[in-house]
């Protein structure tokens, strides 16, 4: 008779959590790429330092 404890080795392996992390990483990369394109489109003559500061703020907001 079981006392409520179980052996985790007997459970089927699920990749759900790793799949969720991979999906989040892909979406984050897409968001960063899209933001870079927006910066390049709208801030043509701006200083590169300003673009870098904006991208750094955007990535910090994604976390």
Question: Summarize this, please?
Answer:
By secondary structure, this protein is an all-alpha fold. The chain has helices spanning 16-42, 48-62. α1 (16-42) runs antiparallel to α2 (48-62).
Written description of the protein model:
The protein starts with 15 loop residues before the first helix and ends with a helix. The chain has helices spanning 16-42, 48-62. It is built from 2 helices and no strands. It is mostly helical.
What proportion of the residues is helical, as a percent range?
55-70%
Distance from first to last alpha carbon = 46 Å
Computed Rg: 21 Å
The 3D shape can be described as: rod-shaped
Query: What's the number of extended β-strand segments?
Result: 0
Tally the helices: 2
Biggest β-sheet description: none
Look at the helices and sheets and give the structural class.
Answer: mainly alpha
Keywords:
63 residues; mainly alpha; 2 helices
Annotate the secondary structure layout.
Elements: H1 16-42, H2 48-62
């Amino acid at each position: 008779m079981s006392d409520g404890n179980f052996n985790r080795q007997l459970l089927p392996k699920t990749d759900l959590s790793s799949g969720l992390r991979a999906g989040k990483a892909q979406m984050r990369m897409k968001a960063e790429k899209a933001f870079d394109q927006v910066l390049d489109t709208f801030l043509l003559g701006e200083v590169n330092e300003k673009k870098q500061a904006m991208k750094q703020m955007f990535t910090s907001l994604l976390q």
